[in-house]
Amino acid sequence: MFTRIVDCTVKPEKREEFKQKMTEVLSLVEKQPGLVDVITLTSDTEPERVVAISFWKTKNDAERHHRENYAKISKILESALQNEPRVHTYNVEQSTAHKIAAGKAA
After folding, report:
1. 80 near 11, Cβ under 8 Å?
2. Which domain does 47 fall in, by range?
3. Which of 8, 14, 36, 77 lies at 20 to 30 Å from 20 by C-alpha?
């Protein structure tokens, strides 16, 4: 399993707009082959900070999603963001939620 972590900062005055746009983004992401789950987190100490974690069956699934959808998603969200999101990728080594054993990451 593979994960993408997208870290972004929302303009303070655009938080509600961002939430609405994320509904559109999530409906797009949910249709992508290989998607396992998406978790969106907001900081309780930095209300403008949002982190989205997506889990993919394989690295290829995540890379295909990035190639085919990242520009479109960035365009949807850009008016609500302070700057370009930062994207990090990782192999998932262990997970209680997804029952993944170490070394099983794709």
Report:
1. yes
2. 2-91
3. 36
Per-residue pLDDT tens digits for 6-17: 999 999 999 999
What is the domain-level CATH number for residue 81?
Answer: 3.30.70.100
SS3 3: strand
Q: How far apart are CA 59 and CA 105, in angstroms?
A: 9
How many structural domains is the chain composed of?
A: 1
The rounded Cα 10 to chain-centroid distance in angstroms is 14
Which string of b and e fits 46-55 if b means at least 16 CB within 10 Å? eebebbbbbb
